[in-house]
Amino acid sequence: MLSLHLSALQVVIPLLAAPLCAIIRIPGVTWLIALAVGIASSINSIAILLHINRFGEIVYSLGGWAAPFGIEYRIDSANALILLIISFIYLLGIIYAPASIKTEVPEKSQGWLYTAWILCFTGLSGITISGDVFNVFVFLEVSSLSTYILISFGQDKRCLTAAFRYLVMGTIAATFYLVGIGFLYSLTGTLNMADLAQRLPDLISQNTVAVAFGFVIVGLAIKMALFPFHAWLPNAYAYAPNAVTAFLAGTATKAAVYVFIRLTFEVFPEDYFSGFTSSHHIILAVGIFSAVITSAIAIFQDDLKRLFAWSSIGQIGYIAVGVGLASTAGVAASFLHLFNHSIMKTAIFMAIGGLFFVTGSTTTAALKNAGRRMPWTMAAILIGGLSLIGVPFTTGFISKWYLVSASLEQNFWWLAGLILLGSLVTAAYVWKIVEIAYFRKDPNVKVVRQEAPLSLLIPTWILVVANIYFGVDARFSGSMATQAANTILGVSP
Amino acid sequence: MESIGIVNYWIVIALMMIALYIVISANNLIKKIIGLNIFQSSVFILYISIGKVGGGTAPILLKEPAVYSNPLPHVLILTAIVVGVATTALGLALIVRIRSAFGTIDDQDVQQDIERN
Q1: What is the distance between the alpha carbons of residues A56 and A72, in angstroms, rounded to a whole number?
Q2: Where residue A275 falls among pLDDT bands split at 50, 70, 90?
Q3: Residue in chain A nearest B48 by alpha carbon
Q4: Where are the domains of chain B?
Q5: Residue of chain B minimizing CA distance to A151
Q6: Spelled out in words, what is the top-level CATH class assigned to the domain B2-116?
Q7: A227 lies in a domain?
Q8: What rounded mean pLDDT belongs to chain A?
Q9: Distance from CA of A160 to the nearest CA of B (A)
Q10: A409 is in which domain, residue-wise?
Q11: What ipTM score was computed for the predicted complex, to two decimals?
Q12: Any domain includes A386
């Protein structure tokens, strides 16, 4: 019978662990609790995935109240994939954390940091598995509030302004989302996603649906840092503690992207602004513009964390392109890139944390001689960078391949061209790093091998190996992504 | 009658626009938080108006059938109020730390301080 409660456990375990950590607060013990949560959730998310592959989607009514009245958790192959990513990135982030945090956060606040971290994970898991739009709002706020706290643990005092700005923008985003679902409720009288999906198509002539769509989508676009709404992200990633940045880069925006995809395709009926232009085309245009422009901005950054933060906004742009194509192939490419991007970006930020551990700085100047001084750390950044460009035998190539073939399927030659242009711009900033790290030799300095400690290197390299593995053998990730797209678009495979 | 029925919604729109203006234009961080509060309150009023039925009572232990207001939006908004309180508390706590780190709670002064270093 336990299998019935798997989905609830995913949220309940971390939700109970967080207050426990807040009471105990001894860094070592809270870390062990966080680790136990990570192991339990990872096993749980695999169990959910296997269960879904065998028996189909899981529908769980909280407290035994049936769907339209009670809150329902609904897990199919789309959110099971996202849940798997979030759980594993969380686990690796926690394994990585103690050595990295030791140098950055004073010991007495480390217990609080783990508390906020577990709460953030609770929120992200909840967003992913909930089938109720208001419940998603609550979990969105749980994860956001704890994210602001996590960012404010940074060393640099600028982390405080970054956290404050994120708080203001995040609250506006969540409130926009709340307005949108308020309109939906006043029209349909339900908050359940599956119910909404049934009732909305009859109401397509109502302007209220279009307004609700606008509010919900803008709210989620701020949370996922889609291009014109990205202002909070670069500072937040740059000044948060390194371990936190690695975790956020792989998970925080991803959960919002998932809700964005779920709502655009499953809940809201196809086209709104039909007199003007399709809403999908707007998402497509914003996505490709963002992918090219923000990658270009990344070239001019002198701080590695900020550089890769800008690159993250660009990668969200690629995911939006897949959504904007609105075909099975396009959405599959989005899911695949979601999966691949969290692997490569987390690995990069973990390696940057290792660089910081040794050199005490994350500026590009700190990279000098890094290629010979810490070959393993540097190789992790390099492979991550190659993957961002989309070089064969890395996951980035697979996602670009899916994305380009999805755009060619609709005869968008110009789009395929722009995607390749984006890769070219990405190559420019990756080259900038490679050039400093490997080719700018300083003959006067004697290079001493000085690698980051193993507790930082091992989680990093697990992700690097995963990056190469899923770049060579994309059967698992590819079939999962296609299955997820089929579920979301309601196409029977 | 009809124009009175929708007066709530006009208030919601007015409050929402005023609040967004405060959040964007205010330099004082406390005032930004006040703006956010007004912004959230406007949405609370929206939800409460959706649920209210004119002349309706609360649906608690009604002995005979009667007109009652929809309690669900009101319950939802209780949750949102809790979220709002948490956000305000966290925002104010951040302002306290900004004040001790930068010596000011004025956004422009903070930005200048950052640019100088």
Answers
A1: 16
A2: very low
A3: A182
A4: 2-116
A5: B94
A6: mainly alpha
A7: no
A8: 88
A9: 6
A10: 296-493
A11: 0.93
A12: yes
